[in-house]
Amino acid sequence: MIENRDELLNVPYRFRKRREIAIKALESAIISVHPDTVIPEHVKKIGDEIEISGIPVKKRGKIAVFGMGKASYHMGIALHRILGDVIDEGVIVSIKEGKVGNIVFKRGSHPFPDEETLKNTEKILDMAKSLREGDLAIVLISGGGSSMFCMPKYGVSLEEIREITESLMKKGADIWELNVVRRSLSMVKGGKFTRYLRPAKVISLIISDVVDNHLPSIASGPTVAVKNEERKAEEILRRYGIWDQVSEGVKRALKEEIRGESADMNLIIADNRMAVSHASMVLALNGIEHQIYHSVIGSVEEISKAMVNQNLSAIMGGESTAKVRGNGRGGRNQELVLRAMKTGSKGLVASVGTDGIDGNSPYAGAIADEYTAEISNKKGLDMEEFLKNSDSSSFFERVGGAIKTGFTGTNVADIILHIV
What we know:
By secondary structure, the protein is α/β, with parallel strands linked by helices. It has 17 helices and 16 strands. It has helices spanning 5-8, 13-32, 35-42, 72-83, 115-129, 145-148, 158-170, 175-184, 192-197, 230-239, 248-253, 272-285, 300-310, 332-343, 370-378, 383-388, 392-399, and strands spanning 43-46, 49-52, 55-57, 63-68, 89-94, 98-100, 103-107, 136-142, 201-207, 265-270, 291-299, 314-321, 348-353, 365-368, 402-403, 414-419. The strands form three sheets. Strands 6-7-5-4-8-9-10 form a seven-stranded mixed β-sheet, sandwiched between helices. A six-stranded mixed β-sheet has the order 11-12-16-13-14-15, with helices on both faces. Helix 13 (300-310) crosses helix 14 (332-343).
């Protein structure tokens, strides 16, 4: 799972064992929430019968599969292994193009939608509108779906959604705030996609990348109804100083409420807690007593400082936020580790995005310890200068410690380790 494992373990002996344990913990966390692991646990085919999470699902019409998000490619592959040609048709927008059985995969755009996103969304909607009474729609949802599945309200352009989203991200808006705005400007989010699927039965299998598994925030909740959000969206845009910059079309769209509808079943099959639990078992089996913290949110400054000041071995799951301060390369996970080093961590710190992507870098995150600090001091590197330019990737490329996984095939937010 970690492509540069040997490089990360190429350290003096006194640091190696602790790094091995940390790497095993991170890999165990990611594998535990991979579609190849969780889809077979929830979907069974017994003879001609299908069970989803132990509930028999009668097939009276056709079965159509839809998907959106970073993990939905592997979710679709895993689902096809089980159901095969029982699936009559399907369109999934994810990280790769291709075809398996009757499922077509389209490449999605992330973190912002593009013109191809609109075309792919239209393909999904065309297939959805063909469903009839007795048909079954299985929707595979994961983080990243907000960008990959997008149809703006009338009068709102794709470029405006991109600009608003980018502005909010740069100003430090969290995922909840981002998705309130996205849902309010969309024809398919907040349960509105379910309306296209009716009168078919709708079952959504969800890999959650959101702290506390808030369903409307996962890919902006295409099959989860949310009411009265347009006013909240306006408040968020005002709070971050963006309201006066948006067009009259956006303002009109936020006056128009289009109600969504929830699926018959919205089932979370993997989440951050599951990943944290598996990483925790690895630490425990290696004799490392530690604290467990779920739903960790906040700025990288706050989290790194609290972690170092407590001076306890811990595993944390959640999602930090980092403001973009310059034109460097990096992401919140690498910045968190770098800030922990600068704060004076006496031990190992590691943080990864479970999707394998950290910000605008080719890395999943970073790992650092006292040896990393030694290398940094020998090279005379000023950590603050790298932080000022949001350039944590360049720092770890020079001292070692950037973790590379490539796309992992799943996405359940971040895992943070601190071993003192």
